Give the backbone structure.
Amino acid sequence: MRSSNILEQPIEYLKGVGPKKAELLKKELSIFTCGDLLLNFPFRYEDRTKFHKIGDLTEQSDMVQLRGTVRRMDMKGEGRKKRLVVRFRDDTGVMELIWFQGATWIEKKLELGVEYLVYGRINSFNGKMSIPHPEIEPITEAGVKEASTFTPVYSSTEILNKRGVDVKVRRKLIKTLFEKIQAVDIPENLPPYIIEKLNLPARNEAIVHIHFPKAKKDLERAQKRLKFEELFFLQLRLLKLRRHRKDTIKGIPFTKIGDHFLGFYNNKLPFELTGAQKRVLKEIRQDLGSGAQLNRLLQGDVGSGKTIVGLMCMLMALDNGCQACLMAPTEILAQQHYQGISEYVEGMDITVGFLSGSIKGKKRQAILDELKLGNIHILIGTHALIEDWVEFKNLGIAITDEQHRFGVKQRAKLWRKNKPCPPHVLVMTATPIPRTLAMTLYGDLEISVIDELPPGRKEIETVHRMESHRLRVFGFMKEQIALGRQIYIVYPLIEESETLDLQSLMEGYVSVEREFPKPEYQISIVHGKMKPADKDFEMQRFVKGETQIMVATTVIEVGVNVPNASVMIIENTERFGLSQLHQLRGRVGRGADQSYCILISGYKLSKESRERIQTMVRTNNGFEIAEADLKLRGPGNIEGTQQSGILNFRIADLAKDQRILQVAREIAARILDQDPTLSKPINARLKNYMETQGKRFKAWSKIS
Ligand code: ADP
Ligand code: MG
């Protein structure tokens, strides 16, 4: 078979590649075969359909394409400052093209009087415009024709550029490849009924146009088609996985609603559940009773009351003779859950255990023994819970409270904690994540959303203040303390510069202490370098209301619950990510009082920091903030998602392609409803493509 062979050929066999370039392409871009090269799409295009006139250029001009002749060439400067200055002219004016690198070579290449095509970015200095290092080529008829299109720009790396595999070489390689392949080499992978329904171009046509777009319309159609294809097959895979699991894996049926659940609900629950909490509990109960395994993502904004929902699910497990566990991403959060849940179930004849990496020796052994005997009913802890040496007697449900931190792999480990049926798995997100991300990262799970906050919560008022206004902030703090409120002041903590951060924290502490002297004021301080016992002591003083101010690093980000704290002050706000800021803000606004969040920053802010701060000031809605975060940073940078690899799209962009994703998921679901195994002839292409292209997902699906 000719067709598959060409695209499966190692990249070094392509003319113009050779062993050295091949090595680079493999290492830098994971391009191993000609097929990989083909599917490495441009990430943007330069609009070369227009020619600019030198006379029309302004300082605002950006990328420009010119047509004209070289009038003069001068080598200027010495040594490192040596540069070639070319006076370039068209019928409207003259400007300079400048080369610092390769000046001698360019000088040799260029000829006076010959017509050239120039493409580059305008640089203006003191009102004088020039183009440093433009692309320049002599004009031939074919050259102009080719240039008058959208020119693809491929992602590259510094090493690739340095070693001569630059964008031009990439374009050339793709061209060489296309000279060798034919339409049949790029077989269609979507059935005609989808192509027709969505009015998509054929696959081979789309791939040609994505590399060599002739017109904007073709390019857009090609992009839509390839984005759809990518998202569609991912959804098909995720949904198939989910169906497969539902069909083949039995869950422990929780048929009984018994004393634990009802006792808690009737006698212990300190408040009325919100409508959203009730709805979500109902959704979960349906899964739990169905005989299938529950695999559900529970999303809800900070403070929406996920914990209580989690607890009630655990009580259902207990009612059905099973154990339950709750796993949190940090020791502090796990501790907090342990304390909170122990309090909730006090007097209910339920034993709650705690396990983390810091519990060692005899103490650990005792817990492990009791767990195995079934004497511990609810186990709460950190990652330590999923270690192999942790054995349950019979684990009915595992709940994880995630900060997008548990990888799929770790989640999978939970599965093996009970035999023969795996435990039910409920994943709670600490902060909301955008729908598109949820559908992808957790696309194989059912999703429940708590979209309502408990009643009586007041919107937290958020303001942005400059460092120079700190005195006014201190004044405000004093007013609040006089009203009996408590205050957090948070400093950033980034691992790489822990010493520096500690320093800024300590300096901050000293200045706060000066402003708020003892004995009138009491201050707690908590940071990651402290011994757990000291940390706990300081934390407790604040919780009990013995201190009015808590100066801390982000260790308090999750977990801490002090309803009387009504002011959150964040220092160096520009150094925090959006979801982190939102988490921090969520520490206040938990009581009946009006709460405030004061974001302090320097004057100099990047555009992105400014937008982050503005977003925080504008809205309290975690879902909205998550969407903004996705747009600002792109899906690849959302915390904890990198390692999953599932977001390394060729062309799709979760921040922009929500609509396409939605359609792709709907169609994939409908197809699987009608043809779960994709064995109908009409779906033959789908099945075939899934089988041949499966490599990328094999590892992933095994562990999810
Ligand atoms: P998160 O969803 O961020 O984990 P929590 O579960 O920590 O939120 O709940 C935040 C606070 O709201 C807790 O103090 C909890 O007791 C309280 N809470 C939860 N549900 C309700 C409710 N239905 N009515 C009133 N308060 C509630
Ligand atoms: Mg929580």
Observations:
- The chain is about 40% helix and 20% strand.
- Residues 271, 273-274, 277, 300, 302-308, 454, 561, 590 surround adenosine-5'-diphosphate (ligand 1) (CB under 6 Å).
- The chain has four domains: 3-46+157-185, 50-148, 190-457+657-704, 461-619.
